[in-house]
């Protein structure tokens, strides 16, 4: 993870003119939609919400979407309502309240157990931000997981915006027990040469199951040869932009690393999009949520910079502990148990969608 000060979710006003009238009419928020040939998550999002950010659709259908770049015709997708709830489903707020009531009488152990010390970074809305309810959805998910699946542990949550210090200093020295949250490689995959950062994350830390899966897109000019690349092999020779401090293990796993590509690493996602616009970079690659925000900041539409429809990666954010922490694996097991129960009950999705709703309301209020 890295320190960032960008809005992560934005409801833009991109028009859906690229879609046929018939397709657009069938793709509406708060309905179930059946995929037809030629659909992509981006085109469905543009028709239903007026934005190319399809991460909320991916969140709502995580168990049925196997490959974000290859939707099978006939697949039925739930298109979330404006408040984040699912079509014909319980609202996020009602589901959260019901789960809180159901777990209100969990027994507390008679044995004293110190509060688990959690650290995350601020200004990373909606993921982690002190101005959001519960500190953003990462903190809400972690704190709730510690009180689900038979757990009943107290915790403290702190915000340290120097993200690198979490892994380099704070966890190794025992100042904190758990850091929220990090992209962790598939550490069982030794088919490529690990970078020093990948080596550190795989050998020094233990991590939970994926807490939140994000789609990482690849963005180019519409007339670029890379706009229709069919595989990662087709990106070789490109000048690829991903921000300084970001993970690259998804690229490494697929052979997209120097000298196969030339990496350009500015500070912000907006810088990467500008690099594509000005010809400094051929491809920009990062989260689809952040891409929609960066394009909005630059006043761009989905016709100015396009997402490659055939190639993307999915990266999972995880909670991590340092292997020198004698209770680290116990905390990971507790969090995993709580998170798994929350996914089954729907509370996991409810917390995320409720935080996204709150964050979007703040963004719209600030823009008025």
TrEMBL record:
Record Gene3D superfamilies:
LysM domain, Periplasmic binding protein-like II
- InterPro entries named among the record's database cross-references: LysM, LysM_dom_sf, Solute-binding_3/MltF_N
Can you give the residue ranges of the LysM domain?
31-79
Q: Does the keyword S-adenosyl-L-methionine apply?
A: no
Species classification: Bacteria, Pseudomonadati, Pseudomonadota, Alphaproteobacteria, Rhodobacterales
Q: What is this protein called?
A: Peptidoglycan-binding protein LysM
Could you list this entry's UniProt keywords, alphabetically sorted: Signal
Task: Tell me where the signal peptide lies.
Answer: 1-23
What the entry lists under SMART domains is as follows: PBPb
* SUPFAM superfamilies tied to this protein: Periplasmic binding protein-like II
- Tell me which domain of life the UniProt entry assigns to the organism this sequence originates from: Bacteria
The record ties this protein, via PROSITE patterns, to:
LYSM (PS51782)
Q: To which species is this protein native?
A: Ruegeria profundi
């Amino acid at each position: 993870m890295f320190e960032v000060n960008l809005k992560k979710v934005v409801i833009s006003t991109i028009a859906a003119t690229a879609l046929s009238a018939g397709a657009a009419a069938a793709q509406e928020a708060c309905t179930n939609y059946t995929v037809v040939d030629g659909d992509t998550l981006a085109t469905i999002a543009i028709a239903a919400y007026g934005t190319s950010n399809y991460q909320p659709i991916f969140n709502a259908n995580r168990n049925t979407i196997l490959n974000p770049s290859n939707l099978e015709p006939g697949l039925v997708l739930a298109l979330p309502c404006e408040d984040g709830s699912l079509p014909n489903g319980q609202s996020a707020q009602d589901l959260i309240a019901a789960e809180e009531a159901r777990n209100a009488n969990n027994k507390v152990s008679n044995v004293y157990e110190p509060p688990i010390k959690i650290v995350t970074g601020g200004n990373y809305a909606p993921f982690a931000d002190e101005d959001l309810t519960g500190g953003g959805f990462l903190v809400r998910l972690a704190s709730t997981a510690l009180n689900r699946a038979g757990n009943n542990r107290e915790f403290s949550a702190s915000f340290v915006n120097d993200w690198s210090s979490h892994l380099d200093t704070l966890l190794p020295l025992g100042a904190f027990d758990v850091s929220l949250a990090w992209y962790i490689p598939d550490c069982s995959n030794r088919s490529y040469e690990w970078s020093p950062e990948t080596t550190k994350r795989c050998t020094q830390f233990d991590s939970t199951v994926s807490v939140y899966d994000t789609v990482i897109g690849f963005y180019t000019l519409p007339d670029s040869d890379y706009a229709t690349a069919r595989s990662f092999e087709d990106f070789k020779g490109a000048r690829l932009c991903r921000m300084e401090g970001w993970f690259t293990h998804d690229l490494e796993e697929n052979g997209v690393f120097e000298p196969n590509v030339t990496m350009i690493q500015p500070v912000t996602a907006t810088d990467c999009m500008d690099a594509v616009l000005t010809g400094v970079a051929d491809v920009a690659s990062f989260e689809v949520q952040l891409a929609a925000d960066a394009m909005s900041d630059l006043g761009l539409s989905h016709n100015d910079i396009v997402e490659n429809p055939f190639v993307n990666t999915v990266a999972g954010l995880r909670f991590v502990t340092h292997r020198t922490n004698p209770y680290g694996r116990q905390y990971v097991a507790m969090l995993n148990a709580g998170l798994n129960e929350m996914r089954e009950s729907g509370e996991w999705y409810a917390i995320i969608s409720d935080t996204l709703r709150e964050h979007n309301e703040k963004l719209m209020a600030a823009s008025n």
